[in-house]
Structures are given as C-alpha cells and as structure tokens.
Design a protein that fits this description.
Two copies of one chain form a homodimer. Chain A contains 13 helices and twelve strands. The first copy, chain A, has 344 residues and is an alpha/beta fold. In chain A, the strands form two sheets. In chain A, strands 2-1-3-4-5-11 form a six-stranded parallel β-sheet. In chain A, strands 7-6-8-9-10-12 form a six-stranded mixed β-sheet, sandwiched between helices. In chain A, helix 2 crosses helix 3, helix 8 runs parallel beside helix 9 and helix 10 packs across helix 11. The interface between A and B is large, with 61 and 61 residues.
C-alpha cells in the first residue's frame, strides 16, 4: 500500500475481500464474476450477492455520501487533444492510477464553462481534489479556486493560495531569446497567442516578460511591431509569420510561444522560399515530438512529469499535508532552425 | 433537457434547486457557496446545509448505491497522449459533458492492466457504461467485455456482442494501396505495428488484410520481405524504413499503418538522401495535424467524431436502447509524398 493510501481508499472492494468472506479461492470469485465456466450457479449467486453487499458498505460511491472520500480526482483542462495537455493528463492519470484513484476528465474550453464548473463543484461532492491545468486567466478566475472546499493544485498557472507545479516560463523565454542574441541576432520577433475567448495564458504573459527581459539584458529595446499575437496552433503561427514577413524590415529571428506555433511559422517560411536558418532563425518552447522531425531548436519542458507531480501533490493535499510549490527545469535543445543572422 | 437525460440525471443538484427550496435568489446561493461577500453568515450556513442535504438525497454518488445511475461513463484506452487516442477522448468527453455526464479516464497500456480492470469493474459500481477505445487484441479480451454487467461500446475494435463505431480499416488500406497501384507502383511495402506487449491492434490486422487485397486486385502477389513490423510510433517507423532500405531490391512505395509511423519513415528517407516522392512514395492512414506539414498523402479518418458517436451510443445503451454499429467513411487526402515510380 502506498504511503498516501491511508487517506484515499485503494481498490476498496477487491475480489480478495469477497473470497475471504465466503471462504472461496480468488480464482473462483473471478470466474463467478466474469461468468466463466467451472462455478456452480448457487456459488455464483452467492459471490454476486456478497460483492453487492460489500460494495454497498465500502465502495467509494458510498463513502462520498457518508462524508469521507470519493476515490476520485478531477483534472480541469481547456482541451485534451494537443501535445501539452494530453501529456499532462497522461502523466497525472498514470500516477493517480498507481494510488488506486480514478481520474475524472473535465475539458472546459471557454471561460464561461469554467466559471459554471467552479460555481457548481461544491454541490457535486464528486472528487477529493482537483488538478487545474494551465488555462487562460480571466478576470473572475483567481478569486474562485481558493474558495472551493476541495484541495486544488494548479499546473503552469499561479493562483493566490493554490500550490502549483510549473516550469519557470519567464526563464524558459530568457533561455530561448538569449540563445538568439548570443549568436548575433538583434532584430528578434515574438509570436504570442490568445485563446478563443481572446484571453492570454499565464505562460504567455510570463514568456513575453522573459522575451523583453532577455532583449534588455543585451541592450536591445523591444519594438511593438515585432510582437505579434495569433490564435494558438499551427495555423495561428503560420498567419503570424506572414504578418512578420509583411514588415518593411522583417526580423532575422523569431521566438514562438510553443513548438506548434513555430511549426506553423516554419510552414509559412518554407512556402515563402525563405531559408531557415540561413535567412531566418526560429526557436520555441516545448520539445514536442514533432520538434525533432522538423529539426526545431527549442527549450524542452517536461509536460508529462508536470502531470505526475501534480497528481502526487493533490493526493498529499487531500491527505491534509502542506505543500511546497514545485518548479521543474527547462533546457535548450539545439537543432537546425537557429544560426547567426545573415551578414548585413 | 436532452432526449437521453430521462435516464442519466443531468446536474442532479443545481444551485437552482437549492435556491427554490430556500426561497433565495440563485445569485445569493452562488455567493454563499463560493464564499463571496454580501451574504449573511446564517444564510450561508443554511445554503450549505441544504446543499449537503440535497446532495445526500439525489447526488450521483448516492444514486449509485441505491441501484440507479452514477452519472459517469468510463473511457478505457491504452494511452491518452497521442493524436488518435486524445482526439477520440476529446470528442467523447465533449459529448458526454453536453449530457451532464462525467468522464472517467482509464489509461491501461498493458494487457494485464486491462485484464485486472475488466475483472474488477463489476465490483466497483462506478460507471453507467464504458467506451473501449482501440486496444490490442489479446487472447483473453474478447470473452470479457460481453460479460461485464454494464453497457459497453467499442471504438475501432470489434468484440462479439459489443456495438462499435469505427472506420472500415480494411477499406482504408485498400484506398491507400490502390492509390499507389493506380499510379504505377508494383513493389509496395507495408509497415505494420505491434504494441509493447507484442500484440497486434485490430486495426493493424484489418489494414494488413486490405493491403493484401488491394495488391491482389491489381494482380500483384504479396511478398513477405515487403511486410515489416515495428513498435508503433515515429521511431518504429524510422527503424522499419531502415529495414526496407536494407533489402537487395527495396520497394518503390510504402504504405504505413498510421501517419506517425509514416513520419518516422520520412525521417529515415530524408537522412538517407532518398527523394520523396521521386524515388520513394509514402502513404498512410489518419490525417494527423502534422500530415499537412510534412505534405504526407494519407487516408483521413475522423478520430474526434468516433469519440462523439461512441459517447452518444453508450448513453443510448445505458438507456436500454438497441444499437446499430456505425462505420464512418474515410477518404484520400492527396499531398506530395506520392508520385509514379521512377522509370525502370
């Protein structure tokens, strides 16, 4: 039994419990429950009845209404079908499963869905805790989480009073942009993103700060025309790159919020006949599996590990333990989309 | 209220119920539950007590032990962090959410984890139904699902007595390979995949059948050396392509089980200096977002829609409705990795 399971029941009704109560072997109970041959019908009925009775007394569903634990943790995420979110979800689900805890997945793409969800959560008694994965920050959000009467851990977004696990987004941006200044770039653009509601992500805000700080560290003044904002994703990155190429003086390098945005930017550059990295350098943050394929230089972040750690934190929080925030390191992965700028 | 919600309760305890019982406005109840200012403490206590009481009577957790519904559907999948599975999950979760049903995510990568899960499920009373997403077929699996005492719908894998939604994998392979024969290829390889346990997926078996059938339709005899099997994924595809290039007479075209496998094969071809499509054609199945980026010719399958339909089917099954299997169409997306073979 894992050290946290004193609080959240692990597999509360197991075949072994049923077998012990009836004086049967586990394999007989298993065969009976699965309708396999080799078990007399009266025995099968006894196994089913005992299973139901045990479940009635100590199943997670029962314990929820008696005021104890549900055996379930919720993950709240804007979406499940892109690399970053699906990696965090996979990491968290695996770790929760190891502790015998079920994962309830809540994909809430809009601010109004999130507001409704957090308003109604206290009524539902359906989870022992929540993992909130990087969603865009609206005006209302920060005041909600700390008033939920359930433990909450956030991933890559910081709310007052809520423990979090994250990379240092500002530092990751500094790592990316400093790589560009170090090899001689001075005219460096950034592609930022907004969600479909037009809200920025916390990571976007911190990475933009890091971009500006890294430029300042090299004595470069930021220029508004070099910061463009697009919807998140490949198409957004492609369109943002088109806008940068529409400038009278385009940049010699582009820092993209994420790899998928950079992959869109690379598509535009390829279609424009602009050679990467000879004429234009591109760098991003993530280390998406496709980054290797496209030879994209990027700052790697351990998305799956963020989910694993968030799961361990929320289990500890549900056990009443105090939590320290966790910041995971990021690092440069040097590939072939970055090079010194063309000679003037 | 949606047409299915007569069976599975939608948001069983809503703020409106609490407000009605206490003669308060919904906004007062909301403020009380969320700990916001503007509500007298005695009122807040009344709201909390009434919420608890209502939840006790009719929450999904309670109804589970009184023999009715849980308001939850489980999704069983080998993994959550690659395009196909994450798209199915996202589609199903969205549709279930529309019906007020929670999604429990079960990622079970190995055969033994799946066997344990299905054995213990009847004891847990934790879901109203299951969506089982394409996992590799082991010797034991087919006999388990139809003996669970909960409605099951499968996605892209067929089990006796279990309704399913899928593409026609055999036909999708025929579409891919026929495209190659139509433009003149005769020496066509296939890259198959196995899971980490060494088990084939149902989709792999059906696509291999389709590959052989399409060759036969063009009077081409299949050759064992042209069928290679690798672990699923980019690296597997890369390694399988290396093996095909090790043949004394390599193929002129390769049909890959999926886009991610093809992307690995393209990486090997690029590193080998073999030009695509001039010297080697590559085609696959999926239409992954990266397929457009890599100009990969592929057979598109609607993964998200598979999840949406599976959700509607399992809701109907939980309502006791009979179900017909659903087969969604696939289609060729012509891009730039396929061309006639080089002149002999």
């Amino acid at each position: 039994m894992c050290k946290h399971c004193r609080v959240i029941p692990k597999k509360p009704v197991a075949m072994k419990d049923v077998a012990t109560r009836l004086g049967l072997s586990i394999s007989t109970v298993s065969r009976a429950l699965n309708g396999r041959p080799g078990v007399a019908e009266p025995t099968r009925q006894k196994v089913l009845a005992e299973s139901q009775a045990l479940a009635y007394v100590i199943s997670p569903a029962t314990s929820a209404v008696t005021g104890s634990r549900t055996g379930r943790i919720g993950i709240v995420t804007p979406r499940a079908d892109v690399w970053y979110y699906s990696s965090v979800i996979a990491g968290a689900e695996e770790k929760l499963r190891e502790h015998g805890i079920e994962t309830i997945l809540h994909c809430l793409p809009t601010e109004s869905e999130r507001r409704d969800f957090f308003s109604e959560l206290p009524l539902q008694h359906s989870v022992d805790g929540l993992i909130v994965v990087s969603f865009p920050v609206g005006a209302d959000d920060p005041t909600q989480l700390d008033r939920l009467r359930t433990p909450v851990v956030s991933v890559s977004v910081r709310f007052p009073g809520v423990p979090f696990v994250s990379i240092d987004d500002r530092l990751a941006a500094i790592q990316a942009v400093s790589h560009l200044t170090r090899i001689g770039h001075r005219r460096i653009a950034m592609i930022r993103t907004v969600d479909p509601d037009g809200l920025p992500w916390a990571a976007d805000l911190a990475r933009t700060e890091g971009y500006i700080a890294a430029l300042a560290n090299s004595g470069i003044e930021g220029q508004d025309e070099l910061i463009v904002t697009a919807p998140w994703g490949i198409d957004g990155g492609a369109e943002a790159m088109e806008r940068l190429l529409s400038l009278v003086a385009p940049p010699t390098a582009v820092f993209c919020l994420s790899d998928e945005v950079a992959i869109g930017a690379l598509r535009t550059l390829r279609r424009s006949g602009i050679s990467v990295p000879e004429t234009m350098s591109v760098i991003a943050i993530d280390d998406h599996p496709m980054a290797e394929l496209t030879d994209l230089t990027t700052i790697a972040q351990p998305a799956r590990q963020l989910g694993e750690i968030a799961a361990e934190m929320v289990i500890a929080a549900a056990a009443g333990e105090g939590l320290d925030d966790v910041v995971l390191p990021t690092r440069l992965v040097a590939r072939h989309t970055t090079a010194p700028p063309p000679a003037a």
